UniProtKB/TrEMBL annotation:
PANTHER family: MANNOSYL-D-GLYCERATE TRANSPORT/METABOLISM SYSTEM REPRESSOR MNGR-RELATED, MANNOSYL-D-GLYCERATE TRANSPORT_METABOLISM SYSTEM REPRESSOR MNGR-RELATED
Regions crossing the membrane: none
Source taxonomy: Bacteria, Pseudomonadati, Pseudomonadota, Gammaproteobacteria, Oceanospirillales
Cytoplasm as UniProt keyword: no
Name of the protein this chain belongs to: UTRA domain-containing protein
Amino acid sequence: MLNSQYHHLQRYFGDLIQQKVLEAGTKLPSEREIGEQFKLTRITVRQALQNLEAEGLIYRQNRRGWFVTPPPVIYDPANYLSFNLYVTEQGFIPHTEKLLQQIEPANEELAQLMGIETNTPVLFLHRRRYIDQRPVLIEKIYINFKFLPGIEKEELSQSLGQLLKQKYQLEYRDMDLSFKSTSLPAHAANDLGISTGHAGLHIERINYTSDKKVLEVDYEFWRHDAMSIRIALRD
């Protein structure tokens, strides 16, 4: 009986979303209101909503409720466009919030990735990025600032790619990328305002200078429903 009840509720909202009766960004009624309308328990309502979330149709924001998921932004890792540019080109509005910036010593793992000595000072940048006012991405970036004198004095909520090009006459060229589907760790989930263990995508990116020196190491944590990877390969 419980199984059929939450499947019925899941189909009901799923159909409304697929038919665009409920449009992207629409806030759903509260769990209590849904339970009262359909005469269902809070547990049954929550199960149906969580299933819709797993399908990518809705998402939950802590202390705000459930919303219809907007279309994902398309990310092409073979393209060197910045977050701001590819989000804007797809008709969305990007925004970046700097959460923390500090100089700190590189630990052993980071030093090995960057090809530097352990405890070498690096610039750490912690940012939260938004698409249409929805937090979708957490970045933890480590920059070898000996290649970029004075960068710690810049406004680092802006596009780093644009800053490198305009101030330092540098462009991102070679990079190593790794992708891993995972549950979001507590620090990323908290920064995004969602529950720990929520499905996400972890990207590790290593950017190089033109002479093959590591310029920065980036760790990105995306909501699973916010981005779709598409790679175009041409001869």
